[in-house]
Each structure stands twice: as structure tokens, then as C-alpha cells.
Fold this sequence. Notes:
Oligomer: heterotrimer
Order of helices and strands of chain A: HHHHHHHHHHHH
Radius of gyration of chain B: 21 Å
Number of domains of chain A: 1
Number of strands of chain B: 2
Number of helices of chain B: 11
Order of helices and strands of chain B: HHEEHHHHHHHHH
Number of helices of chain A: 12
Number of strands of chain A: 0
Radius of gyration of chain A: 19 Å
Distance between the termini of chain A: 36 Å
Distance between the termini of chain B: 33 Å
Helix content of chain A: over 70%
Largest sheet of chain A: none
Largest sheet of chain B: 2 strands, antiparallel
Structural class of chain B: mainly alpha
Number of domains of chain B: 1
Amino acid sequence: xxxxxxxxxxxxxxxxxxxxxxxxxxxxxxxxxxxxxxxxxxxxxxxxxxxxxxxxxxxxxxxxxxxxxxxxxxxxxxxxxxxxxxxxxxxxxxxxxxxxxxxxxxxxxxxxxxxxxxxxxxxxxxxxxxxxxxxxxxxxxxxxxxxxxxxxxxxxxxxxxxxxxxxxxxxxxxxxxxxxxxxxxxxxxxxxxxxxxxxxxxxxxxxxxxxxxxxxxxxxxxxxxxxxxxxxxxxxxxxxxxxxxxxxxxxxxxxxxxxxxxxxx
Amino acid sequence: xxxxxxxxxxxxxxxxxxxxxxxxxxxxxxxxxxxxxxxxxxxxxxxxxxxxxxxxxxxxxxxxxxxxxxxxxxxxxxxxxxxxxxxxxxxxxxxxxxxxxxxxxxxxxxxxxxxxxxxxxxxxxxxxxxxxxxxxxxxxxxxxxxxxxxxxxxxxxxxxxxxxxxxxxxxxxxxxxxxxxxxxxxxxxxxxxxxxxxxxxxxxxxxxxxxxxxxxxxxxxxxxxxxxxxxxxxxxxxxxxxxxxxxxxxxxxxxxxxxxxxxxxxxxxxxxxxxxxxxxxxxxxxxxxxxxx
Amino acid sequence: xxxxxxxxxxxxxxxxxxxxxxxxxxxxxxxxxxxxxxxxxxxxxxxxxxxxxxxxxxxxxxxxxxxxxxxxxxxxxxxxxxxxxxxxxxxxxxxxxxxxxxxxxxxxxxxxxxxxxxxxxxxxxxxxxxxxxxxxxxxxxxxxxxxxxxxxxxxxxxxxxxxxxxxxxxxxxxxxxxxxxxxxxxxxxxxxxxxxxxxxxxxxxxxxxxxxxxxxxxxxxxxxxxxxxxxxxxxxxxxxxxxxxxxxxxxxxxxxxxxxxxxxxxxxxxxxxxxxxxxxxxxxxxxxxxxxxxxxxxxxxxxxxxxxxxxxxxxxxxxxxxxxxxxxxxxxxxxxxxxxxxxxxxxxxxxx
Lengths: 265, 293, 352
């Protein structure tokens, strides 16, 4: 319990330092928010263009696909805020900051998360919620007592999946210090989790469901709110997948650190 | 104990015979230096093998996902924005594969050089910084062309109904245009990278550039599928020259004289983008040498 | 009680070999070749609590690797080590609570914000109670004269100011053992001596054990009662500094600047009978090399009375030179009385 308070205290402290840093570079803050939103906007344009040419995507209407997109933005925003490991290899392995992290009395992965928090990413989550409300309203989706708690739980589980996948991939930096890396490529793939996976063939469905389960950060959990019964069971599986993949990520990370401590750099 | 040192390929080339043709040796050495940039980057890419294995898988997956997405969009219909389903499949496959060749991180590399100050050292070396960077990008592109694009295309052909062009003119046109795709994309990257001299943190600019290039070049959606007004706008921007035009030649949507026309558009943009690149480069040098960074 | 105990400590690395050329690179794509390098070769030493010990050697001798093992960053390949009662790599989080680490070349402070913010954050990270923190910070700030710097962002500090802040950052949690990796590198003389004085006081008042690596013999002279010297992963000397200098310091150099042209022959004449060597860049600047057995003052006495001197600088042998002269003879013992075991060890892997 004291340990939990310790780590919560650290989150607050790092957040404060982030804000102080940002206040010295105010322009950057807004450039980042705008470029984030622009990025989301291009994805949105894709959906709009697609539905200019068809009425349904594998049996899903435009509003449904937009709703899924709105949901997708929420866990992604939380994940982007707290887990930013894009430059891990360069900053911590090549420049050697991992050594400093290892001489501090808090969990190493947690320290790295906190040193790289990115609160502006959360704004994308707010936009996502707005999109869900609007498209949900047009679809006439019912608002139940469990809607908000389910949203929170599923978001956290999706964040756990993201974290697990990217932590596992980042752990590869301990073995090979590739500067560009796989992460940007993976970034493309995660976007496929927000389209109805049923439009893909079996191999890709299996891949996006069980191997790199990005379907669980978008379409499956969102289906619960859209009352798509064919995917309800998958939606309920999200917490299990979250636990499994977070576990894999932590395991890979700990193995990586162990190797780092064996091999140095 | 720097394990990393072993990654930087030391120059394993046998010593060149010197003395012969001493009149040309200055120029020749410089050319040799540029070729070395290509070679070294190629070898560096080879050293990162985890990237390589996963890269092939991920590119194939990208093509697959896009293929099925378009298949779902087509549904029963057989033509969208002038593309038949088979043409669309071919377009998707060849666009992603072309991206493997023209894509590079020069913008990121240049702005890193600027931020950590190492650009000052590179500016005083006896070669042109921008040209050397482009050469490194070319080494990277050639690596992906040979080791990603060709095997990747073979895999894509096995899995999806990709139709290769039969006309030799389409092949020749496409390959030439691919070179210009690389040049134009790299020019845009250099311009974005050099902007770090004038914008304190150009991270946002780089991200926007990346998104814009992927969307407006026609990689994600072919330009003819955009709403009329938007495709009109995109036709006067350089981005379509990166993916959409070569893809149109490869899929046979543009044939015969048309190939010369679209090639002309590429050449035009290549020439036009040289101007801001040089201006920016000059301004950057000015800033570095006169104001001291 | 010993603060640091090391026994038969060894660290081996596997290093990737890159085969040559394009063909080699393709071959590497499918099968890697590795090479084993032993950075630290079965070293043994113990440092009692409250001692300041210098850890010296050339680059690549294994200094950093040892420090990294002692601070829990690296896990040893074999051997035993105990630091502050802990085995560093076993209980990392608890262990590091007791140590402070400063890497001279790397900052542990936030770049863009006031130094005090970094200190506040470290207080939370190390769970230092508010009152203890206040007291300790006041003390350190006072001692290192940082009052005016606390709110300045790190990027606006000079190297010397930054280094003093780094020390504070490493000491806020009152560690009993302090590891310093090149703490004075790149600093000017004033700051260097300030930092040395501070470390000496720290050691005296709090009994802090300090292990430092350095290339600056003056750091060692000012601080260390003991020196451990490393070469090619082995300890080649472990003992007092004076003894080391006497045995291995080869001499000193004195630089003269004259107000009026002074010929080399004249200088040689003045020091006739002393085994010194003169050299000169021009008629206004000359230097003389004085072997250890001579007194510098004897030589100076002969010159000062007769020449018009505008500046004098005495240069002591630095550790690197001492180390180099030790390598050349292959052992840290005096060449004539070299012990067999030492010889055997060093000749086994000759330094190149």
C-alpha cells in the first residue's frame, strides 16, 4: 500500500516537472496538440472518403465506424500520455541514461514511463469522447448505468494491451540497438484495430486478435457499446488479453534489463 | 566497453590505387566519397537484422490489411474512382512497396544534427551536407528496394490478385518515376529537417509532414477517390508525385504519351523543390557561420 | 567494517564481430559471430568505511565496468561483491538507497527547469522526509554556495555550477557510499579545488566512503589516502599514493617564460652539474625536465637569480604517465624487485 502511494506521489511529482518544463516552451505545447489532432483528422478523412463510395464497411455503417474510431482514440490517448518509448533506444541505451535509471530506488520501467510523460496526448482522448457522444447520439445508442464504468475498465485494459505490446518491442533495444526500429511500423498496424476485423481474411483476423491484438483496443470493446452481439464475447475478453499482454511486456522488459545488466553497452 | 562501436561498419574497402589519373582524382575522390555514403548506409541497414525480419512481415501485413479493406469497400461494385478492384489491389501493393524505397528519416536525422550541434562539423567537411544526406537516404532506399520490396512484392503476388503490367513502357516508366519519388520525398524531408534551424522544436512539423505525405501522396487513398475539390487541390501539390503518379503508371491507368506527361510533372516538382531547398540551406549556413548557431 | 568488499570479481562481455564487406554483412544477417572480451579479470580488494579511494587506469582498463558492477548497473560474470552490506545486483532498489553516484559526463538533472525542481523530485524518489531534506539541502547549498543558482535552469549553468549541483543531487539522501566517475573532468582549477575541499569535508564530517575514478593526479593527491590502479582488467597497484609516486613518478617539468631573450646554452650553463634536460620553443619560452631525485627548488634557484622571468609553471607527472611507465616495465613493483606472481600475471596478457 505504501508502495502504491509512493508511486502515485511520483506520478504527481513528474507531472509537475513536466508542466514546469512546458511552461518554458509554451509554443511547443500547442504545436504538439495541433499536430496530434491533425493526425487524427487524416484518419477521419479516410473514413469519410471511404463512405463517400460505399454505404457499409463489412456490414458496419458510417456512424458505427466513426463511433469505433472515437472509442479507439480514448485508450490511445491515455497510453500516449503515460507510455512514450519512441526514443528509448537512443536516449537510454545509446546515450547511456539507463545507467542513471538503474541507480535510483524506483522500478526502472516506471521511471522511464514517468520521465517521458506527454499530457498533451490526452486532448485526443477528449476529442474521442466527443466523437463517441455525437455518433452514439445519431445511432440512438442507449446510455446504461454500466456505460461509464465499462468505458473506464475497457480503456484501462486496452491501455494494458498497448503497453504490453510496445514494452515487449522496446525490450528488443536491449538486444539490438536499432535506431529507427520496428515501432513506427507497428504504429501503422495498430490503426487497423479500429475497423471491423471481419472484413479481413482469417490469417489477419487471427493476427490482430491473438498475436498483436490491436482489435482489442478498438473494434471489440467498442462493439459492446454498439450492441453488436457477434463481438460481445470478444469485448468481455478484453481484460484477459490486457492481463496477458501486460504480463508478456513486463516479462520481456525484465529479461531485457537482465541482459543489459549482463552485457552493458 | 562499447558494443555499439562494432555496429558502425568500419571502412572495409581495400586501399584504392592512388596516383593514377591525378588530374581527375579530386573530383573522383569526391564522387567516391558520395558513393561511400550509399554503401555505408546500406551496410548499416544490414546490421540491424531484427528490423529486417520484422520489416518484411509488417509490410506484407500492411498490404494485406489495405487489400481487404478495399475489398470490403468495393463490396459488390466493380469500379471506384476509375479503379477496378484488381487495379486497386495492384495499386495498394505497389504503393506500399514504392514507399519502402522512397521512405527515409532524413528530416529526423537532419534536425537531430542541428539540435545536438553536430551539423556545424558536417558543414565544414569537404562535401555538400544535403547531398551527402540524400546519398545516405539512397543507400537506405536501395537496401529496402532489394531486400524488402522485391521479396515483399513476390509475397504479395502469391497472396493477393496483383496484376503486373505487361507493357515494357509501364515498367520502364515506373522505375524511372520511382527514382523521382525518392528525390521529391527526400527533398521534402530535407526541407522539413532544415526547418529546425528556424523553429525551436520542429517535432510537430515533422509529424505533420509525415501524416500529410502519407495521406496526400495517395498512399492511403488514391487521389481520384477524394472529393472533387480536394483532388483538384492535391493535383497542384507536389505530394501526388510521390505515390499516386508512379502507381497510376504501374497499374496501367496512365499509358503511352500519358507516361511522359506524369513524368514531366515529377521532373517539374523535382526542379521546383530544389529552389526552397537551396534557399533554406544557404540561410542555414548563414545562420550557423554568422550568428554562430 | 568494510564499505566495499570485492573478491575475484570478473566481468566478461560478448562482443559482436562484424564481418568485412558486403558479403560479410549478408552473412551476419543470418549468423552472427561473437567474441568474448574480459573487461575485469578476477580482482579482489576491500575498502573500509570512511576511506577515500582513487580508482585509476587508462581508458578501457575496466574502471567503468567495475564501478557499474559496484553500483548495481551490471551483474558480474563471477566473483563476490558486497557494497554497504548489500549485494548490489540482488536487491537493487533497496541497495541504491544507500549510495550516491555522479557520472561526470552525464547529468541527472532536468535540463529545462530550475535545479531546485530536480532536487524536489529526487527527494520523492529517495523518500527523504521533508525535514531531513530541508536540513540537508540548506547545508549543502550553504557549503557549495548555490543560493543564487537554485532557480536557474540547468541549461543555463556553467559546467562548474552544474557539477556542484550534481553533487548535491547525489547526496540529498545522505548516502553512506559515494561513487564519482571523473567528477572534475573539464572543470577549471578553482572549481576543482572547491569540489575537492567539499568532498574532504563530507568524508570527515559524515564518514562517507568515496570511490572515485579520475585522470587528474591532483584529485588523487588532494583526496585519496589510497590508490587502486587497474590495467587490462587487473589490479596492478593497490596502496598509498606517496609510495606510488616515489616509485613511478618520473619527474617534473617546469615551464619558464622570460622577459628577455635567453639562449638555451645559457640555461644549460646555469644548471651545469644537475641532471636536467632543457628544451625551448623560442628564446622567450623554455622548459626543463627534472628527475624525481632532484629538488625543483635547486633548479629554480639557479635560474631565478640570473634570468628575467615573467612566468613559471610546474607540471607534475599525471596518473596517465605513471600508469604508462608502469606498463612499460610490466609490473607495479619496482622492476628490480618484481615479484614472480605479479610478473606472471602481467606477462600473460601484455599490454599493447
